[in-house]
Amino acid sequence: MDVKEKKVVLFSRKKRAKKPKSLKKRLAVFGIVILLLAGVYCTAVFSNIPFIKKWRDLYIETAMDTYTHKWLATMFIPKSVIDGVMNAKEGFIEGQQDLQSSWTPAPSTQDPSEAPSEEDQAKADFLSLFYELDKSSFDGYIAKNPDMLADGYGKLLINKSGVNDSGTAIYTTNGDQVVVLDAENGILIVKVTGEGYVGKLAIVKNPAQVRLGISKHLGNVGQTVGQIAKDNHAVLAINASGFADPEWKGNGGQVVGLLIANGKTLNGPVKNGYLNIGFSEDDRLYIGVSTSKLKYRDAVEFIPALIINGKNVTDGSTGFGIQPRSAIGQAEDGTVFLLTIDGRQVGYSLGTTVGVCADILLKYGAVQASNLDGGSSTIMIYRDKVITKPSSTTNIGRLVPDAFIVDYAKAAEK
Description:
Pfam families: NAGPA. The protein is of the alpha+beta class. It has helices at 3-46, 50-64, 71-74, 79-95, 121-129, 135-144, 225-231, 354-363, 409-413; strands spanning 157-159, 177-182, 187-194, 197-204, 210-214, 234-239, 242-243, 255-256, 259-261, 264-267, 275-280, 285-287, 296-302, 305-308, 311-312, 325-331, 336-341, 366-371, 380-382, 385-386, 402-407. It folds into two domains: 3-92, no CATH class; 98-106 and 164-413, no CATH class. It is globular and about 90 Å long. The mean pLDDT is 88.
């Protein structure tokens, strides 16, 4: 064997000799990665560090509060951890069972102290009614669009509520953009936004205009909120009751919980922690008051309560996670709030917690408020148009048993 051949053999032996070391190195790296992943997993699943626990609980609540995506929690997280979170939810629901709304003053839809005395009476009345408006931004918008007042303040209609509309340059004193100003019907709709969510809040000045619209085929099949609004000649509507929804294939026909419309009981209550939510004959919103103590003109049943007698009765997500939301509330002066938050749409709006809904409504003066059915049922209709982005498989929303609707002012006067 010559010198060159010996060098080749030695070189090849050296290469073969290095392989075991390389394999050991790769195995060591792999082991370290596995240990790191195990550490991350254990920290994420079992740690009680407040930041980690908050987002872990939200993740579990959000997954477990759906019909079809519970596996997102059950596949990765031990049952004991999930049970701990969901048991806290059950405890919260149980703790709400004694909550009851109460009212003392009579309704008044005006706040005269807000009306500037130096302005003409028509404008003063308008600003007194819509005291949520930031006057400077309103005056600036009207100065640029004087034709809006062609028929006077009482007939003023600004509608920039379409899902693709950019809204107006008018804002509320809370900094939210106005998308609808409907003076004749006493309706103000604002766009509400926050961390991870987009929604709309309808502010209805006359509570007598708010009632329940019922599916024509209740007991068999529901209707879309838009169709319920159209059948009832309503100007505004949002979804209300929950319904039987096995495997997320329910047709909205079987309402779950108490249902009273125009004083007539159409369905009885359930015994799973749900609370009565409805209007008395004097147009006050009551939550948690039994039918034996109060005669409701219109009522549904759902959970959880958000605000009772001016107090926020939620605590963050309270076991309900981040979802599309619908809610109803009322201020001391009788003003009714109808809130919808879009969700389950990455890059647009994921949804929000019941606690955030309570905060939004408190900001506008609600003293009573409750969560309604949400998820893929959440939707708002204004003048026969869908003005939110539902997470249902269609852009017109799911079939539902009923909806909170708002009559045109002239119809409510009859």
